[in-house]
Specification:
Chain A is an all-alpha fold and 189 residues long. Chain A has helices spanning 9-31, 34-41, 45-51, 55-71, 80-97, 99-111, 116-142, 152-165, 176-187. The structure holds a DNA duplex (21 and 21 nucleotides).
Chain lengths: 189, 189, 189, 189
DNA sequence: AATGAATGAGAGTTCATTCAT
DNA sequence: AATGAATGAACTCTCATTCAT
């Protein structure tokens, strides 16, 4: 009398978030339909609303997922200059292997102009990111790995700008590799 | 007995494009409604369809408008290094004074991942832009205004990446000024 | 200083009626659009409404046209039996050479169930037609050309039914020729 | 606390088809509106689209219904001549008691000139009908119930033509009874 | 925990008609 | 006599959400 094994509720939630994440990357907010999400997760539309009362709540889950995914590119290993290089590479790798993350981040970036909740989340992420990179630049300069007279604040801003542009679709920001190489060169990495 | 003065047709078209442009900047593709566009332009929804058979056609008009607007930042005046500096400043000014242009360009960038028509337009715009900037960098280097050993191709890619990031909402790309200042510094402008 | 020669108003009206007639045959009432009619007649939609205040009025013109066209199959030549045979042949010829007439008559037949104006017109046409055919049958019988014991009323009803079925599209009433041949045989023509 | 009792889904479908059938008979394709259908079936317009994705699909349901209804006039009971007579009477009865069937069949006949799907359906129905009637005529002749020298093919064509005309509104094909009586007389039924 | 059925509000688009010239 | 521009009303279809089970 076992029947189809029920999934643990937490797993269901995760399935739905993942389905929404993928569809958001594919179709954008413009084309995101709760019915499609439910279908991709293999459940009824009413079940989706059982786990997420509104579409907005579901999107919240996706945001969380993406932010977690992105934070993984900032894991501290080795000296500051190595950490910096690793970060650049990790971002490049993430964009190549999981372009969905970039796509969704782009969507969130645009939406932050209209959605206060997303805005504050995006802003705080950027701020944290900025501080981490600036700190790495400062320590790298102090330890003599990169040019010492660098304005770490401004340089960090440029690093973020360049990496942020890379989350956009290829058409909108081609020459990823060239830009990154030039960035490393200027930083002296 | 004058009645309401009729507008010149070309003016009506322009009004509609402008209304669509503003609403696209405000709400994104996700929230763009033809009825709202018509209302903002002060005409009946059927009148909108008299000028633009489909929503897609209207969006085409908006794209044209934005591209024209953006191209205005690339006007050739003076030496290559001055042109470069002017371009950077013009973009900064445009984003400050007409953030809608940036917002819409961001929307187009994201949409280019799904819409072939927009994709090719965005791509060709980027390509032209890249070539112009690279040409300016080359001539500026040759004339001794900036460092001569610069890889003009890679540097152009970085310029574009930085400027492209600036079209995103402030939350998603803060520290515009810092980034731009650093860019000028590195270029030696 | 001649310019494009203006058409006589009556000609314009006729052009519009003809265009409407053709389009009604092609698309049916379901697909009849005043704009298409105007376009086919080569005039502006507002011009159409100058000649025909409403779509209904235009349709009235078409009805008139079709009835005239159909009445042409009932021209008296020769003896009653010859007239009968000629009538059958004229209908057959009309349906072959101008199937639009049949198509439009079919449309009118159906519409007569909802449109009192058309209903009375269709009814009176049928009544006249019935009387003519019955009269011919009677005289033909009296003159010994066809079987004398024929119920001219019932036979006329059958003639009309058969010919009416022939105005329907081929799919709905195939074997025209067979049916007509049998009719002639039974009538002894 | 019973609330409004839910209908069985199949019943809902049938209700919708029936509503569409009635409205199609009343207003024709020209005047058939999905909202009216939903209203007559007592459901929201969105519910209609839950059962039938498109208007076309709903019409498909109506076609099926009508064909089933019409086929019921061709039930084999008794000798060939009795079957023939019964068929004629069943059609007459159907047209009298459910004129909607005739109206809808007329609509389908006209539409078959434009709609390939309906065309093939109408054509195959006619072909089957023709063969059945021809077969009955042959066997009736062989068994000596009707005149033996009858061209069964041509006679079948005439039977169909007459009966088809009877599906049209009364205005367009009056004297049903007379025509049918004459048909029986000629066939010797 | 999960679902099929149902819905209100609203989307883009169409159409006969009218208005000002 | 003729037109381009404009419109109100209505059309089919969609979507996030809810209800009864």
């Amino acid at each position: 009398m076992a029947g189809i094994p029920r999934k643990v509720p937490e797993q269901r939630r995760q399935d739905l978030v993942l389905a929404a994440f993928e569809l958001l990357a594919e179709k954008g907010f413009e084309g995101l339909r709760t019915r499609d999400v439910a279908a991709r997760a293999g459940v009824n539309i009413a079940t989706l609303h059982y786990y997420f009362p509104t579409k907005e709540a579901l999107i919240g889950g996706v945001v969380e997922h993406v932010m977690t995914r992105f934070r993984s590119t900032l894991e501290p290993h080795g000296s500051p200059d190595r950490q910096l290089r690793n970060h650049l590479r990790a971002v490049r790798k993430l964009m190549r292997e999981e372009p969905e993350v970039g796509a969704v981040m782009g969507e969130l970036a645009l939406r932050s102009a209209r959605d206060p909740a997303i805005a504050s989340l995006v802003r705080s992420t950027q701020e944290t990111w900025h501080q981490v990179v600036r700190g790495l630049l400062r320590r790298a300069a102090k330890e003599g790995h990169i040019q010492p007279d660098l304005d770490s604040d401004a340089a960090a801003a440029m690093v973020l700008a360049t990496l942020t542009a890379m989350t956009l679709p290829l058409q909108a920001a081609p020459h990823h590799e060239l830009a990154l190489r030039q960035l490393e060169r200027w930083l002296g990495l």
